[in-house]
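U., I forgot to send this yesterday:
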Amino acid sequence: MSISTIENMVNWIEDNITDNPTLAGMSDYVGYSPFYCSAKFRENIGITFKKYLSKRRLTLAAAEVKNTHSRFLDIAVKYGFSSQEAFTRAFTDAYGCTPYQFRKQLIIVQLYMKPDVIPVPRAQV
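Result:
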C-alpha cells in the first residue's frame, strides 16, 4: 500500500469525522479490504483506526469547546457521542478536566493532531 493511499485514508477520516466514519467505509473508499486497511493504518500511523478516530474526535471537540460558545450537547452529538454525559466522561478521562472547566479556565491539554504520513522503513535483509 502506497503512502499516498495512507494519506487518503487519513484525509478521508478527517473529511468524514462528523459523519460517523467506519473502517468499512474507509476501505471501500481506498479499494482495499478492511483487514488490510486496518493493518496498514496501524503500521503507518501507530495506532488503530478506532483509537485514531476517538482521539481526533476529542481533539476537534476540544477545539470547539474552547473556540465557540456552542452547547456541549451540540458538540457531543456532532462528534458522535451518545450523550453530553458520555462526552464529558471521555473528555475528563482524556484531559483531566470537564469541558466546562476547559472553556472557562486557562487549561493546557495535549491534543492529538492529524499526523504527517511518512514512509515506514523496510527491514534490511
